[in-house]
Amino acid sequence: MQISFIIPHKGRFEMLIQTIESIAKQTFDLSQVEVIVVSQTKEALSHTFCNDHSLRINTFLRPESDTISALRNYGETQASGEFLAFLDADIYLSENWLEQMLNTLDCDPTRIVASAMQICLPEAPPLEKIRTSLSNAELDTNVAFLPGRNLFLTRSAFHKIGGFPEHLLTCEDYYFTDKAAQLGALFYTSAANYIHLGEDKTLKGMFDKEIWRGQSNLKSIEGRHIPLREWPSFIVPPAIFLCILCALILICAGQMALALLSLILALVPLLAYTIRLYRLDTLKVSFLNTFTFYTVYFPARAIGTFAGIFKSISNKNT
Predict the structure, then answer these.
(1) For range 52-74, the mean pLDDT
(2) Could you report the per-residue pLDDT of 276-287, keeping only the tens digit for each?
Protein backbone atom coordinates (compact mmCIF):
# COMPACT_ATOMS: atom_id res chain seq x y z
CA MET A 1 0.00 0.00 0.00
CA GLN A 2 1.57 3.29 -1.14
CA ILE A 3 0.56 6.73 0.20
CA SER A 4 1.58 9.99 -1.47
CA PHE A 5 1.50 13.25 0.47
CA ILE A 6 1.18 16.19 -1.91
CA ILE A 7 2.11 19.62 -0.52
CA PRO A 8 1.89 22.84 -2.57
CA HIS A 9 4.34 25.41 -1.23
CA LYS A 10 5.39 29.04 -1.51
CA GLY A 11 7.54 30.65 1.20
CA ARG A 12 7.43 30.13 5.02
CA PHE A 13 9.96 27.27 5.10
CA GLU A 14 9.74 26.83 8.86
CA MET A 15 6.08 25.77 8.57
CA LEU A 16 6.78 23.46 5.64
CA ILE A 17 9.54 21.78 7.67
CA GLN A 18 7.16 21.26 10.60
CA THR A 19 4.55 19.82 8.25
CA ILE A 20 7.03 17.26 6.90
CA GLU A 21 8.30 16.46 10.39
CA SER A 22 4.73 15.59 11.43
CA ILE A 23 4.52 13.18 8.47
CA ALA A 24 7.81 11.58 9.57
CA LYS A 25 6.28 10.92 13.02
CA GLN A 26 3.29 8.97 11.71
CA THR A 27 2.56 5.61 13.33
CA PHE A 28 2.79 3.93 9.96
CA ASP A 29 5.35 2.11 7.86
CA LEU A 30 7.19 5.06 6.31
CA SER A 31 8.66 2.87 3.59
CA GLN A 32 5.15 3.01 2.11
CA VAL A 33 5.04 6.81 2.23
CA GLU A 34 6.34 9.43 -0.19
CA VAL A 35 6.17 13.22 0.06
CA ILE A 36 5.75 15.36 -3.05
CA VAL A 37 6.55 19.04 -2.45
CA VAL A 38 5.43 21.21 -5.36
CA SER A 39 7.09 24.54 -4.72
CA GLN A 40 7.20 27.97 -6.33
CA THR A 41 10.39 28.83 -4.42
CA LYS A 42 13.78 27.79 -5.89
CA GLU A 43 15.30 27.35 -2.43
CA ALA A 44 13.05 24.33 -1.88
CA LEU A 45 14.99 22.30 -4.44
CA SER A 46 18.16 22.25 -2.35
CA HIS A 47 16.61 22.28 1.14
CA THR A 48 17.07 19.34 3.52
CA PHE A 49 13.68 18.87 5.13
CA CYS A 50 14.06 15.94 7.46
CA ASN A 51 16.77 13.80 9.05
CA ASP A 52 14.59 10.71 8.81
CA HIS A 53 16.02 8.97 5.74
CA SER A 54 13.16 6.46 5.65
CA LEU A 55 10.89 9.26 4.40
CA ARG A 56 11.17 9.79 0.66
CA ILE A 57 10.82 13.44 -0.34
CA ASN A 58 10.68 14.68 -3.93
CA THR A 59 10.61 18.40 -4.67
CA PHE A 60 9.43 20.01 -7.91
CA LEU A 61 9.60 23.65 -8.96
CA ARG A 62 6.63 25.23 -10.73
CA PRO A 63 5.96 28.72 -12.16
CA GLU A 64 4.69 31.42 -9.80
CA SER A 65 1.71 31.90 -12.12
CA ASP A 66 0.35 28.44 -11.19
CA THR A 67 -2.67 28.40 -8.88
CA ILE A 68 -2.69 26.17 -5.80
CA SER A 69 -4.96 23.79 -7.73
CA ALA A 70 -2.41 23.55 -10.53
CA LEU A 71 0.31 22.75 -7.98
CA ARG A 72 -1.82 19.98 -6.43
CA ASN A 73 -2.75 18.52 -9.80
CA TYR A 74 0.89 18.52 -10.89
CA GLY A 75 1.83 16.79 -7.65
CA GLU A 76 -0.64 14.03 -8.45
CA THR A 77 1.02 13.42 -11.81
CA GLN A 78 4.35 12.87 -10.03
CA ALA A 79 2.93 10.64 -7.27
CA SER A 80 2.95 6.86 -7.25
CA GLY A 81 0.57 6.21 -4.35
CA GLU A 82 -2.69 4.33 -4.32
CA PHE A 83 -3.87 6.89 -1.74
CA LEU A 84 -3.37 10.65 -1.92
CA ALA A 85 -3.04 12.98 1.06
CA PHE A 86 -3.31 16.66 0.13
CA LEU A 87 -1.87 18.98 2.79
CA ASP A 88 -1.21 22.68 2.92
CA ALA A 89 2.38 23.60 3.78
CA ASP A 90 1.45 24.76 7.30
CA ILE A 91 -0.26 21.69 8.79
CA TYR A 92 1.03 19.71 11.77
CA LEU A 93 -0.59 16.27 11.85
CA SER A 94 -1.30 14.12 14.88
CA GLU A 95 0.82 10.95 14.87
CA ASN A 96 -2.20 8.75 14.12
CA TRP A 97 -3.46 10.88 11.21
CA LEU A 98 -2.55 8.53 8.38
CA GLU A 99 -3.70 5.44 10.26
CA GLN A 100 -7.07 7.02 11.05
CA MET A 101 -7.57 8.37 7.53
CA LEU A 102 -7.16 4.86 6.15
CA ASN A 103 -9.55 3.50 8.79
CA THR A 104 -12.09 6.23 8.04
CA LEU A 105 -12.26 5.35 4.36
CA ASP A 106 -12.00 1.60 4.93
CA CYS A 107 -14.90 1.29 7.37
CA ASP A 108 -17.48 2.77 4.98
CA PRO A 109 -17.25 2.21 1.21
CA THR A 110 -19.58 5.17 0.53
CA ARG A 111 -16.94 7.62 1.76
CA ILE A 112 -14.87 9.30 -0.93
CA VAL A 113 -12.85 11.91 1.04
CA ALA A 114 -11.80 11.99 4.70
CA SER A 115 -10.42 14.81 6.80
CA ALA A 116 -9.35 15.27 10.44
CA MET A 117 -10.50 17.85 12.98
CA GLN A 118 -8.59 21.04 13.69
CA ILE A 119 -7.19 21.75 17.15
CA CYS A 120 -5.18 24.63 18.63
CA LEU A 121 -2.96 25.08 21.64
CA PRO A 122 -4.52 26.34 24.90
CA GLU A 123 -2.52 29.56 24.64
CA ALA A 124 -3.77 30.28 21.11
CA PRO A 125 -5.16 33.81 20.59
CA PRO A 126 -8.97 34.27 20.49
CA LEU A 127 -9.07 34.58 16.70
CA GLU A 128 -7.35 31.22 16.20
CA LYS A 129 -9.77 29.62 18.67
CA ILE A 130 -12.72 31.10 16.77
CA ARG A 131 -11.38 29.73 13.50
CA THR A 132 -10.87 26.32 15.09
CA SER A 133 -14.42 26.27 16.47
CA LEU A 134 -15.83 27.21 13.06
CA SER A 135 -13.86 24.39 11.44
CA ASN A 136 -15.27 21.90 13.97
CA ALA A 137 -18.93 22.91 13.77
CA GLU A 138 -19.73 19.36 12.57
CA LEU A 139 -17.72 16.38 13.80
CA ASP A 140 -17.80 12.61 13.22
CA THR A 141 -20.38 12.97 10.50
CA ASN A 142 -20.76 13.39 6.78
CA VAL A 143 -20.40 17.04 5.82
CA ALA A 144 -21.15 19.15 2.76
CA PHE A 145 -17.68 20.68 2.49
CA LEU A 146 -14.11 19.97 3.61
CA PRO A 147 -11.26 22.52 3.71
CA GLY A 148 -8.40 21.74 1.37
CA ARG A 149 -5.67 21.87 4.00
CA ASN A 150 -5.96 18.14 4.85
CA LEU A 151 -7.77 15.80 2.48
CA PHE A 152 -7.35 12.05 2.09
CA LEU A 153 -8.73 9.96 -0.77
CA THR A 154 -7.87 7.22 -3.21
CA ARG A 155 -6.17 8.06 -6.46
CA SER A 156 -9.06 6.56 -8.40
CA ALA A 157 -11.46 8.89 -6.55
CA PHE A 158 -9.28 11.87 -7.45
CA HIS A 159 -9.56 11.00 -11.14
CA LYS A 160 -13.33 10.51 -10.89
CA ILE A 161 -13.66 13.95 -9.30
CA GLY A 162 -11.57 15.41 -12.08
CA GLY A 163 -8.83 17.06 -10.07
CA PHE A 164 -8.71 20.55 -8.58
CA PRO A 165 -10.10 23.53 -10.53
CA GLU A 166 -7.05 25.33 -11.91
CA HIS A 167 -9.08 28.36 -13.05
CA LEU A 168 -9.79 29.39 -9.44
CA LEU A 169 -7.37 31.50 -7.43
CA THR A 170 -9.14 30.63 -4.15
CA CYS A 171 -12.21 28.63 -3.04
CA GLU A 172 -10.83 25.63 -4.94
CA ASP A 173 -11.61 23.36 -1.99
CA TYR A 174 -15.32 24.30 -2.15
CA TYR A 175 -15.37 23.39 -5.83
CA PHE A 176 -13.38 20.16 -5.43
CA THR A 177 -15.24 18.76 -2.42
CA ASP A 178 -18.62 19.78 -3.88
CA LYS A 179 -17.86 17.62 -6.93
CA ALA A 180 -16.60 14.85 -4.62
CA ALA A 181 -19.85 14.96 -2.60
CA GLN A 182 -21.77 14.11 -5.78
CA LEU A 183 -19.87 10.81 -5.92
CA GLY A 184 -19.68 9.82 -2.24
CA ALA A 185 -19.61 10.98 1.37
CA LEU A 186 -17.23 13.54 2.85
CA PHE A 187 -16.37 12.50 6.41
CA TYR A 188 -14.91 14.77 9.07
CA THR A 189 -13.46 12.74 11.94
CA SER A 190 -12.26 13.54 15.46
CA ALA A 191 -10.21 10.31 15.58
CA ALA A 192 -7.21 12.30 14.31
CA ASN A 193 -6.36 15.98 14.32
CA TYR A 194 -4.05 18.70 13.06
CA ILE A 195 -2.82 22.14 14.04
CA HIS A 196 -3.08 24.82 11.38
CA LEU A 197 0.28 26.51 11.93
CA GLY A 198 -0.58 29.39 9.62
CA GLU A 199 -4.03 30.04 11.06
CA ASP A 200 -5.11 33.68 11.30
CA LYS A 201 -3.97 35.11 14.61
CA THR A 202 -4.59 38.85 14.16
CA LEU A 203 -7.61 40.73 12.81
CA LYS A 204 -5.43 42.67 10.36
CA GLY A 205 -3.96 39.44 8.98
CA MET A 206 -7.42 37.91 8.68
CA PHE A 207 -8.81 41.04 6.98
CA ASP A 208 -6.12 40.93 4.29
CA LYS A 209 -6.47 37.18 3.74
CA GLU A 210 -10.28 37.29 3.49
CA ILE A 211 -10.08 39.98 0.81
CA TRP A 212 -7.80 37.62 -1.12
CA ARG A 213 -9.95 34.56 -0.40
CA GLY A 214 -13.14 36.34 -1.43
CA GLN A 215 -11.92 37.08 -4.96
CA SER A 216 -13.03 33.68 -6.28
CA ASN A 217 -16.31 33.54 -4.33
CA LEU A 218 -18.63 34.02 -7.30
CA LYS A 219 -16.34 32.30 -9.79
CA SER A 220 -16.42 29.16 -7.64
CA ILE A 221 -20.16 28.71 -8.21
CA GLU A 222 -19.85 28.54 -12.00
CA GLY A 223 -20.69 25.12 -13.36
CA ARG A 224 -22.09 23.65 -10.14
CA HIS A 225 -25.40 23.50 -8.30
CA ILE A 226 -25.44 25.75 -5.24
CA PRO A 227 -27.48 24.32 -2.33
CA LEU A 228 -29.66 26.69 -0.30
CA ARG A 229 -27.38 26.48 2.76
CA GLU A 230 -24.50 28.04 0.77
CA TRP A 231 -26.35 31.12 -0.44
CA PRO A 232 -26.00 33.11 2.83
CA SER A 233 -22.20 32.94 2.53
CA PHE A 234 -22.45 34.76 -0.82
CA ILE A 235 -25.27 37.19 0.06
CA VAL A 236 -24.68 38.17 3.70
CA PRO A 237 -21.15 39.71 3.47
CA PRO A 238 -21.97 42.12 0.59
CA ALA A 239 -25.34 42.97 2.17
CA ILE A 240 -23.74 43.89 5.51
CA PHE A 241 -20.97 45.85 3.79
CA LEU A 242 -23.45 47.81 1.65
CA CYS A 243 -25.64 48.57 4.69
CA ILE A 244 -22.63 49.95 6.58
CA LEU A 245 -21.54 51.96 3.53
CA CYS A 246 -25.05 53.37 3.10
CA ALA A 247 -25.15 54.30 6.78
CA LEU A 248 -21.90 56.29 6.44
CA ILE A 249 -23.18 58.09 3.35
CA LEU A 250 -26.50 58.88 5.06
CA ILE A 251 -24.70 60.23 8.14
CA CYS A 252 -22.69 62.57 5.91
CA ALA A 253 -25.95 63.64 4.25
CA GLY A 254 -27.55 64.33 7.64
CA GLN A 255 -30.15 61.56 7.26
CA MET A 256 -29.71 60.17 10.75
CA ALA A 257 -32.93 58.14 10.88
CA LEU A 258 -32.16 56.30 7.62
CA ALA A 259 -28.54 55.85 8.71
CA LEU A 260 -29.72 54.20 11.94
CA LEU A 261 -32.00 51.90 9.94
CA SER A 262 -29.09 50.85 7.72
CA LEU A 263 -26.94 50.12 10.76
CA ILE A 264 -29.71 48.02 12.29
CA LEU A 265 -30.05 46.05 9.04
CA ALA A 266 -26.31 45.35 9.19
CA LEU A 267 -26.40 44.51 12.89
CA VAL A 268 -29.14 41.84 12.69
CA PRO A 269 -27.15 39.23 10.67
CA LEU A 270 -23.96 40.13 12.58
CA LEU A 271 -25.66 39.31 15.87
CA ALA A 272 -27.32 36.18 14.45
CA TYR A 273 -23.98 34.74 13.28
CA THR A 274 -22.27 35.79 16.52
CA ILE A 275 -24.89 34.09 18.72
CA ARG A 276 -24.77 30.92 16.62
CA LEU A 277 -20.98 30.62 16.84
CA TYR A 278 -20.92 31.59 20.51
CA ARG A 279 -23.26 28.68 21.25
CA LEU A 280 -21.20 26.27 19.14
CA ASP A 281 -17.86 27.42 20.58
CA THR A 282 -16.22 24.78 22.78
CA LEU A 283 -13.09 26.86 23.36
CA LYS A 284 -14.93 29.57 25.33
CA VAL A 285 -14.06 32.73 23.44
CA SER A 286 -15.90 35.82 24.70
CA PHE A 287 -19.03 37.12 22.98
CA LEU A 288 -17.24 40.40 22.22
CA ASN A 289 -14.34 38.63 20.49
CA THR A 290 -16.78 36.58 18.43
CA PHE A 291 -18.76 39.69 17.44
CA THR A 292 -15.53 41.51 16.55
CA PHE A 293 -14.49 38.57 14.36
CA TYR A 294 -17.64 38.82 12.23
CA THR A 295 -17.46 42.63 12.16
CA VAL A 296 -14.09 42.29 10.40
CA TYR A 297 -14.75 39.06 8.48
CA PHE A 298 -17.90 40.08 6.58
CA PRO A 299 -16.63 43.42 5.17
CA ALA A 300 -13.36 41.77 4.12
CA ARG A 301 -15.22 39.00 2.30
CA ALA A 302 -17.43 41.59 0.60
CA ILE A 303 -14.46 43.67 -0.56
CA GLY A 304 -12.84 40.52 -1.92
CA THR A 305 -16.05 39.54 -3.73
CA PHE A 306 -16.41 42.96 -5.36
CA ALA A 307 -12.71 42.94 -6.28
CA GLY A 308 -13.23 39.55 -7.96
CA ILE A 309 -16.19 40.91 -9.94
CA PHE A 310 -14.24 43.94 -11.13
CA LYS A 311 -11.26 41.75 -12.05
CA SER A 312 -13.49 39.41 -14.08
CA ILE A 313 -15.05 42.36 -15.92
CA SER A 314 -11.62 43.84 -16.60
CA ASN A 315 -10.31 40.52 -17.93
CA LYS A 316 -13.30 40.15 -20.26
CA ASN A 317 -12.78 43.64 -21.67
CA THR A 318 -9.09 43.06 -22.43
Answers:
(1) 88
(2) 988 877 778 999
Asked if pLDDT for residue 216 goes beyond 80, the answer is: no
pTM here is 0.87
| CATH at residue 137 | 3.90.550.10
Structural contact between residues 154 and 3, judged by C-beta atoms closer than 8 angstroms: no
Mean predicted lDDT score pLDDT of the chain: 88
Give the pLDDT of residue 311.
64
Instruction: Indicate the pLDDT class of residue 13, thresholds 50, 70 and 90.
Output: confident
Domain around 298: 221-317
Shared domain check, 235 and 194: no
